[in-house]
Amino acid sequence: MSSSMEILQRAIQAARAGQKAEARDLLIELVETDPQNEMAWMWLSGLVDSLEDRIIACENVLTINPANEKVRVYLAELQRQHESLVTCKNSDDAIGLFNQAKAHAERKDRNMALQLAAQAVEKRDDYEEAWLLIGRLSLDMDQRIAALERASRLNPANVKTASALERARYLKANPMSAATRLEQQGKFDEALKVYEGLAAKAKDSKEFDQIYKQIIRLEGLRKENIRHVAPTSSITRLTFTWPLLYLSLALIQVGLNPFKHPAFYLWLGLPLVLGGSFLLSLAEVRSDHIVWQKLFSEHGDGSPFARLVAAATGWFLVLIPHVLLILDSLNRLRNFKIPPMPF
Amino acid sequence: MLPLNDTEPNRYSFLPIMTIILIVLNCFIFYVEVFHVGDDYWPFFMKYATTPRLILSAQGGGALSNITAMFLHGSLFHLLGNMLPLWVFGRRVEDACGPWRFLAFYLLAGTWAHVLFVLVLSDSRIPGVGASGAIFGLMGAYLLLYPGGRIRTLVFISFVPLWPRIRAIWVVLYFLGIQIIPAIEILRNKADYSTNHWAHLGGFFSAVFVLLFLRPEAYARYVSDTAV
Lengths: 343, 228
Hints:
The complex is a heterodimer.
Chain A: H1 2-16, H2 20-33, H3 38-47, H4 51-64, H5 69-91, H6 94-106, H7 110-123, H8 128-137, H9 141-154, H10 159-173, H11 175-184, H12 188-200, H13 205-223, H14 231-239, H15 241-253, H16 264-284, H17 290-296, H18 304-334
Chain B: E1 2-6, H1 17-37, H2 41-48, H3 52-56, H4 63-69, H5 76-97, H6 99-120, H7 132-145, E2 150-157, E3 160-162, E4 165-167, H8 168-189, H9 197-205, H10 210-213, H11 216-223
Antiparallel strand pairs in B: 1-2, 2-3, 2-4
């Protein structure tokens, strides 16, 4: 018995350490010698790959302990998934499979959605939407590119597919950007995995150090439990900084009453400052923004050149209205008659 | 009570370059004021200080005077009394914002300090000068960003100097507290003033805008309730 406990503990430790295959092998060994071990079947139900095996593991748990409600609920869900798979298989209905896949994708069940979409394209190789779904959901960059290429061949006129394919190719060629993108989306764990993978494949110590710094930074963020702030939100927030200053200065310039002392030219500067401030924020906050694609035909979060151009343009747009405001003040000072001292 | 230093290190940048530039600029302008303006200060202040009546009638330097007034000081004591807190509170606020946005926030706090001063004392023909409105903005921002911060402060107890590390909130509340009664007095009796208490209050309340100016990392820490 003590040896069963030891094997079980080793398997649990392996599973928690992410060594799924080792944990599964140990548990299979254990249930062969001790088929009444409820814990072993429970752990196994989460470690086996196929849906059928999961169902068998859960059924075995319930045979040993019919009062295990959690497993009963889990089994019901697995059986429901299995039924939908079987129904679709039997009806040989690619559309049905694709609709199922879409429904699972909406419920954020990525694996199931991918499995169903893959079955849909097995049934009907020219199913563009299913290929697109695979291209959108797959985390494996090669699988994503292959799916998008297939979709693109099926419908070469689809601009969105072509753009997604280009982006996927860019991310494959620039895996650091892929990690940054995941980070921007707040997927710190996935980004960390990508960084770790890159560190393992680093060409030299310099590259390794660079990646290692990112890993340390991300782990620090996770440790401190820092909340993810979407890049769009940061860009929006920072965009208001310089316009707020300009607006305040312009208000002072018109004697805090724009109706009594109208100076319309001052307000014309506001959109310029707003645009400039937006470009400055964009150059600072790393984000996969549409501006990089539209203005610089770049995928990802902007090359150093694109950022430099955005920052320079931003400063120009921010400064010009401020300089004009100061020139207006200087002009007023030139015609200003100093009043006498009140005391 | 005189704040001397914040002993906590910077997190994002090594050198508070804009705080240093502002201090140097203030000192240089004070030098120009003393040695090149001299006794002919009235026309100089009329042009480059904030005078409520001139601002409201859209006369004089307007926005330019609003900015230059932030760099003018009435005496050496006035200058030192402003530059020390600029260093104490500005360093870490700049660290959280980055140098350029810190400059923008500093100018914004100074501007809103003048806005409140002009609105409250709208009939006044006495020019207002000094960086204190902007510095009160920095104090408020410091309190918002580092509520648990401690400031090495010089205090005299029965003429004995002591320099304990006091929680920033007490230091800021002390300076805020000594503004409120004179400010109310000015409002009620239209009393004469030598210190621009309403500008101090205006600067302090403009501190809420600092959240717009934070660098993304500092903002993420702020919303995560972690030390900025």
